[in-house]
Amino acid sequence: MTALSDAGLPARPRLLRPAGLLPWAGALAVLAALWLAGGQAGWLNSYPDAWILPLRDWVSEAMRWLVKDASFGLFTFKELTRAFAGLLDLPLQICLILLSRGFAVPLGGDAGLLIPPLSWLGVTGALVWAAWRVGDAKLAGLVAGCFGYLAVFGQWNSAMVTLSSILVAVPVGILGGAALGILGYRSRAAERALTPVLDLMQTVPVFAYLVPVLFLFGFGPVSAMIATIIYAMPPMVRVTMLALRSVPAEVLEFGRMAGCSRRQMLWKVLLPSARHSLMVGVNQVIMLSLNMVIIASMIGAGGLGHDVLTSLRRLQIGDGLEAGVAITVLAISLDRLSQAIANRTSTPVHLQADQSYAVRHATWLGIVAILAGTYLLAFFLPALRSYPDWLTLDTGPLFDDLVQWINVHAYSVLDAVKSWLLIHVLIPFKRLLVEAPWPGVALLLAVAGWRIGGVRLGLTVALLTVFIAVTGNWEKAMVSAYLCGISVVLAMAIGVPIGVAAAANERVHRIAQNTVDTLQTLPSFVYLIPVVMLFQVGDFSAMIAITAYALAPAVRYTDHGLRGVSSEVIEAARMSGCRPWQLLWKVRLPLALPEIMLGVNQTIMMALSMLVITALVGTRDLGQEVYIALTRADTGLGLVAGVCVAFLAIIADRLIGAWSHKRKQELGLA
Amino acid sequence: MTDGQNTPTLASPAAPGSPPAKLICRGLWKLFGADAERFLERTGGDPSAQQIADAGLIGAVRDADLEVGEGEVFVIMGLSGSGKSTIVRCLSRLIEPTAGELVFEGADLRRADARQLTEIRRHKMGMVFQHFALLPHLSVLGNVAFPLEIQGVARGEREARAMEMIDLVGLSGRETYFPSELSGGQQQRVGIARSLAVKPEIWFLDEPFSALDPLIRREMQDEFLRLQRVLHKTIVFITHDFDEAIRLADRIAIMKDGEIVQIGTPEEVVTAPATQYVAEFTRDVPRAKVMSVRALMTPGDGAGTEGTVPADARVNEVAHEVVHGRKPVAVVDDAGAVIGRLERAPVVDVLAPGGPEPAPATAAAAS
């Protein structure tokens, strides 16, 4: 009887069969053997210098040729880049004149007539008015508060410089991204060419392409803007392709049946139908542009980013914090404003034919009226022109005192915690990774890829790993992996329980959601300020900053994954008598695991992007290489190290993504 | 009755005396998959289902023949995956057929180039979609006027025409609403108005009421019948709902696995299902609702009858009169001439089937 019923059962799951475990065991055995053999053959432990492919020198050479010698016959490559830069410089100058510095009309000799910039109160008032029109009183209040902060804390001028470059970079990023996205939507070939580039763009740390941008366009606000556009554009391309693809097939068919030409199809059917999804991309471009503010100031952006960077270098915590918060409030107000505009496009407004021109265009007329009114008034009331100095607050000394106080009173405690963790956790883990024989690690990763996603994934992972070794970045990459790995573990250890709590409780959910949203609008640099304040520079500070930055997805995905478990399954489990803990451990967590793993994936991506920034606080990993390359304008070094970071990210992304996909299929969720 | 005896894949020529065909499709094939055209040539233009499956292709439409007469409501009925959506898209060339002939108003539709096709679609075709396919950013007025806007009709003119259509479908007063503010039934009314705005010569409706609740669906079917009484359009109507097909159709084509199994009037399909598959659908249909007096009458003169009924009336419409009358009733044609008589017994058999003797037609089809 038993034999019969056994025969009817399906075979045991593949992973449990001994054959499925064999490759893992084999790879581990090889790793161990190589480790032991490492004593005899030094090349196993550290990749020999003689074998390093001088890729970075080749890249640097190519760059030099491009800038010095490349020519298209009529004009040289350099002239082309300069012309492009000039094109972007014009709108930037107009914005700067309007918002920040005014315009001096030379009248011969020493005399000059200064046409002043817009009044600070006018700009604030116009934005508040716009916020009230597209949103509600709450949004208007928020915008008032944010721009009020900029004025009161003496950040106005820097903020306007930053805002000017955002005002130019964002439209260029949106239009360029949308154009590329439309191209990718229309042509399969274009899409196939775009996708890997986008993948790489979103994983290469920003610093890596700061170097070539610096090389091609020189140091200054325009280069900074170009880097910002390059950084902020990829999501727009993706969103555009996705948004256009998700326009229902029937709507397209309708367009064809109505006899639309290609252009009518695009402008009258596709783009309007997808406009809501497209706004998500617009919002992304704004947020990413603001995220770039500090980094872009390394190649001459000026404004708030410059202020943060200088005070961070001088360890003037208070000033850095003020400017950092200024970037944040700018980000928050622009984010909320753009979201309100996006929501407005989805809620219909019934236009009445009898409404007058003034009523229908009240938003724009109001903005113009406020700006013009305050501008004229300011000629009589100088306090309207620029915010009066005697009314500004400066918290710099306060914070400096605070840091001093902490250093005097809490130093021993903080230092003890830090030392203990360094000695017992960080350093052993770092040594483990750095000393592991590189061929063994590559093999283990390849086997993981093969078992999870098939031969192709295994080969991809192996190739990427070997690339890192061959370009001579193995040890630095392992330091990156160690810093990143430990931070991710920490972030998950903190984030998953919060996510579990948020999934169980509506109030925690709301608080967590808001906090996470806010954390994600903070530019990454801001995380460094308090950390440096408490722990000085070094691996430990980097770890804390990375953890804090990468926490958000851990919370979000856990919460989302647990909430996504179908309510029928939960009811079934309840009816079989599960206690709350059993429900969590035996039903909800296993079912939510694929989603949570995607959260881990996101956490790793964010950790890696933060990694390069923490180079500023003195780590010795790939991030530092990229940073050094930037200061030396060494294109080859920067790009190769940057690509290595990207490859680390891609390896983690592909492995986890494939696992999550496979598991979801096994669970019947995908 | 003779039409119902046709072999399944043969085209059913429009009944004698019926109006000329507006749209003819002969030997239409649509195979999805790589190199479908070459495969079709290789197999002599008539591959079996097995051959198609072996080649890794999907036979969405296989050798379909049909003719849609001027002013006729032609319903294509089939379950999901039967190829009914593909065939209607082939008829409008939204999907390019793999092989076959399409004749629209006497001209070869497959030979039309992109520009001609656009012109035909702009001026002669209208289509209603299952999920409405309204443009979310336009008001009701904007949506209905959209096909005219695409043609470049001036604003005043197109809006006047659109208002007329909105009025026709009973949405007056809602022209400034946006699709998201309307119920499903109202949205489909907009879809109908929009497709009629260009005064199409042929009107395609792809499962227009499938996404609606049963009550609303019924209401929309009534609305459809009312519109057709006013407009007399040539209509190709797709549905998966057999009852809907019977209610609305002048003629029905039933599809299964890409093939047309039977074409006929509702009466023919119900009384003489061509295959077991069709019989499955017709089994529960009340025959009195589809059978005409003509089918039950005994030809002859009006001797010994009392009262008259039209030959084209449905049995359920005259049942009361026949069953309760003392004598048989006379059957008259459109001109009012007596062409036969209707006895009580066959009417009762139709009203209450399942007696000792099953209706002869059903028995024949089932064998």
Automatic annotation (TrEMBL), chain A:
PROSITE patterns: ABC_TM1 (PS50928). Keywords: Cell membrane, Membrane, Transmembrane, Transmembrane helix, Transport. It is found in: Cell membrane. It is a multi-pass membrane protein. It holds the Pfam family BPD_transp_1. Residues 155-338, 477-656 form the ABC transmembrane type-1 domain. The chain crosses the membrane at residues 21-38, 111-132, 139-156, 162-185, 206-232, 285-305, 362-384, 456-474, 481-504, 524-552, 596-617, 637-656. InterPro entries: MetI-like, MetI-like_sf. Belongs to the binding-protein-dependent transport system permease family. This is ABC transporter permease.
UniProtKB/TrEMBL annotation, chain B:
GO terms for molecular function: ATP binding. The complex is probably composed of two ATP-binding proteins, two transmembrane proteins and a solute-binding protein. InterPro entries: AAA+_ATPase (IPR003593), ABC_osmolyte_uptake_ATP-bind (IPR051921), ABC_transporter-like_ATP-bd (IPR003439), ABC_transporter-like_CS (IPR017871), Gly-betaine_transp_ATP-bd (IPR005892), P-loop_NTPase (IPR027417). It comes from Rhodovibrio sodomensis. This is Quaternary amine transport ATP-binding protein. Pfam families: ABC_tran. PROSITE patterns: ABC_TRANSPORTER_1 (PS00211), ABC_TRANSPORTER_2 (PS50893). Its EC number is 7.6.2.9. Belongs to the ABC transporter superfamily. The lineage of its organism: Bacteria, Pseudomonadati, Pseudomonadota, Alphaproteobacteria, Rhodospirillales. It is a peripheral membrane protein.
